[in-house]
Amino acid sequence: MNAVTKTEAARPSLIAMMASKHNMDPEQFARTVRATVMPANHTNEQFAALMLVAQEYDLNPIVKEIYAFPAKGGGIVPIVSIDGWINLVNSHPQSDGFEFEFEHDEDKKLVSCTCRMFRKDRSRPVAVTEYLAECKRSTDPWKMEHRMLRHKAMIQAARLAFGFSGVYDDDEGAKIAEMRDVTPASPPLPPKPPAPPAAQIDHDAQTGEIIDDAEIVRETGEATSALTAREDDFDATAFFEELEASLGAETTAEGVEERWDEFDPLATFDGDETNQSIALAIKKRRLKTIGGEHGQA
């Protein structure tokens, strides 16, 4: 008996599936979409992202039911035209129609438009009211106020009634595309503290030696003590790291206090309340860890 080997057909690509739906060659379909609904210099990933959205909602990019709007700083925003929104609503299996109601003021000027969206599985419609004062833009399409406001009300009602997400109308997409990054900048580092004053250097008139608290250097007169280091050579971060490491090696409150006195951070950062506070926080944290009784400095 001969064994029968079944070979699974290769799964068609997304572009091939969409092209087949419109009776087009996949390459021709991709070229047409890229040339008509994608911004210049778009990436393959952005093209694929738009096609995924189009496939998800069964929208036709060839007739611009969906297209890409270029975002500031790169990227795209998927835009659904009014024809696309109407397609979304009418093709939904639970859609049961929609209706509009306009409101005018005493001077017969348009104020608002309400759209009621009906679903077969609900007893009451979803009603959304859009106001002209909040929606109108200074563009040519908005010269037809009633028509444009009707579109806005219909789109928002559709979104609430059927849960359409990740797609926008042209007004929303333009605003999103123009948004700037509002991520707060990293907080500035505290300024470096001034270096401790250099030790007073006196010369012995007889020997020429430098006599002070620093190391005695003969003949050259050059102080090598760290007390004479230049301000821009002082590294507060390194100081804090060394302080924390030294305090961390102590297991008693008394030992922490001794190390603290050796480093004398308050004198080191005299006049710099910010760095003094950082040093005190390091000390308090260590005392709390070992259960010392001197948690308050």
Strand order of the largest sheet: 3-4-5
Number of helical segments? 11
Shape descriptor: elongated
The overall average pLDDT, rounded, is 78
Q: How many domains make up the coordinates?
A: 4
Any idea what the radius of gyration is?
37 Å
Query: Order of helices and strands, N to C?
Result: HHHEEHEEEHHHEEHHHH
Q: Strand content of the residues, in percent?
A: 5-15%
Instruction: Please report the distance between the alpha carbons of the first and last residues.
Output: 91 Å
Estimate percent helicity.
40-55%
Quick one: biggest sheet? 3 strands, antiparallel
Number of strands: 7
Instruction: Pick out the low-confidence regions.
Output: 1-8, 180-187, 198-231, 292-297
Provide the structure class: alpha+beta
Keywords:
41% helix, disordered C terminus, 7 strands, 4 domains, 11 helices, 13% strand, three-stranded antiparallel β-sheet
Structure description:
There is one protein chain. The longest helix is centred in the middle third of the chain and has 18 residues, at 145-162. This protein folds into four domains: 14-80, no CATH class; 83-178, no CATH class; 195-230, no CATH class; 235-297, no CATH class. It has eleven helices and seven strands. 41% of the residues lie in helices and 13% in strands. The strands form three sheets. The protein has a three-stranded antiparallel sheet with strand order 3-4-5. Strands 1-2 form a two-stranded antiparallel ribbon. It is of the alpha+beta class and 297 residues long.
